[in-house]
Amino acid sequence: MLSAPPCDSFYRGPGYLAQHNARFTVSAADEGTAFVPFVGDLENILCIHEERIAERYKTVRYNGLVLQIPASRDRYHFAKATIRVLEYHDGRIALFHGPRKIARFIADGNLDEGEANRKQSIA
After folding, report:
1. What is the pLDDT of residue 73?
2. Which residue range(s) make up the domain with 101?
3. Distance of CA 61 to CAs 2, 24, 58, 90, 100, Å?
4. What pTM value is reported for the model?
């Protein structure tokens, strides 16, 4: 028959936790909470991130889809450029070149027209 090691009863004995807390607890230097609100973009963090190399005809292949990169005023072409593909929880797909979002697609691979219109109105 197996028995617990002798020191095991020391950590589970009555009053150990209270003695431990009394010995090692320190008061906070400041009043209030140490938690701060998160101000980042969780949607772009909590998604699938992959990299692809753009093909000659401004296309990127991802999960059986061929995604056509729309024309951009920032770059003449994206052939052989490294493109970050982000797939969101609802199936939408976004393409990034560096920090710039270059396109957003709905789950079936069609360009998100609402996103394209918003980009034009900002530019």
Report:
1. 86
2. 42-122
3. 59, 56, 10, 19, 19
4. 0.65
